[in-house]
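Subgroup meeting minutes
Present: P.N., E.W., G.H.
Scribe: E.W.

1. P.N. recapped why we're keeping a running log of single-chain structure predictions: easier to compare across weeks, and new members can see raw inputs and outputs side by side.
2. G.H. added today's entry (303 aa).
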Amino acid sequence: MRRKRVLPPVMLILCTAALAGTAPAAASPQAALAPAAPLRILLTNDDGYEAPGIRKAFERLTAAGHDVTIVAPLTNQSGTGTKMTSAPAITVRHPEPKVWAVDGTPGDSVSFGLSEVFEGHAPDLVVSGTNFGPNVAGLATHSGTVGGAVAALESGVPAIALSTGGLSVPDPVATVNAMGPTADFAVKLIDRLRARAKSGPLLPKGVGLNVNHPVVGADGKDAAAGVAATFQDPQMFLVPDFTDSGDGTWKVSVKVEPRPAAKGSDVEAVSAGRIAVSPMNANWNAGPADHATASALIAGLRP
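Output recorded in log:
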């Protein structure tokens, strides 16, 4: 079961409406509405608090007037998903103003940030990223970047996960360059959410956005072809392969086995050079149709 499929249609309509007109094409009159007051933002990631993606996001969001505080992992925590540390103690550093480094996962960082850094006054928004590489399809399910956003949603705080990358082997320089356009788009998206929300919530209750920005152009600095409201593609194109070493250990490698992108999916959008924006929530509940199927499967069973 996939997190992106569980939203009722009304949630998808609300999210799609909130994103209409964010492409570089002519803006609607509503897009020109003066945004509300700047936001208090908790900024996290899974690449570590000093990674170029989070620093670029901090720079651009701060320049846009927002009050941004980094609460992010001390070290690279890529692939940790929604993991939370169960140790009795955790190391936290405060290396510079507006920056906290947590020796744990993105979920730990968000938990610490909401409990201590923003104690008694939750932030208006949690932004996680921007990540080095995409978090589409099955990658999103295991992503620490998405996991940080999920931790915020679990606590009732609106959240956006940001990722930068195409579907081919990443070029480090081009990907880092593309983090600039990614952060610029995040500023525009947040302005749109504020203008639409007025004095209300930025997003429907329990709903976050998983944003994947492609790398466009040889140097990664070109603009995306547009913006699409998408869902998480069902495929997992990174497939682990295990080889027995004969001594009780197994060598692990990863094969890339992409399948055709589902129509309307995040993979389809990023492959076409567009920004994919997928609504998500923080639980693993299936939709009404799947619930009905499960009910039929267990009908008549007894302990």
